[in-house]
Task: inverse folding
């Protein structure tokens, strides 16, 4: 049985293999709804405090920043940055 520390080591090993830092081009066509959902999933995953057992716990600050930039770029390309900001404001007001 793997412990959470073992799982973190496996993720770290996979992320450090040769070629993992190479840029790849992904041609992806998804709905604006799914772009918005993907952005929120990424944001929510990044808010998990001290997640040392998962992939995000193995990432450096630069890696997390790059992931956040990908999420923001998806919003920009879909043209829904302002919609996301308004939804975030609305969500914060409900808390």
Result:
């Amino acid at each position: 049985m793997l412990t959470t520390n073992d799982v973190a080591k496996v993720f770290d090993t996979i992320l450090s293999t040769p070629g993992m830092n190479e840029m790849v081009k992904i041609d992806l066509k998804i709905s604006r709804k799914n772009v918005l959902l993907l952005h929120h999933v990424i944001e929510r995953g990044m808010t998990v405090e001290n997640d040392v057992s998962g992939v995000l716990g193995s990432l450096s600050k630069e890696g997390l920043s790059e992931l956040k930039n990908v999420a923001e770029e998806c919003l920009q390309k879909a043209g829904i940055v302002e919609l996301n900001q308004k939804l975030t404001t609305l969500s914060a007001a409900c808390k």
In short: The chain has one domain: 4-93. The chain is about 65% helix and 0% strand.
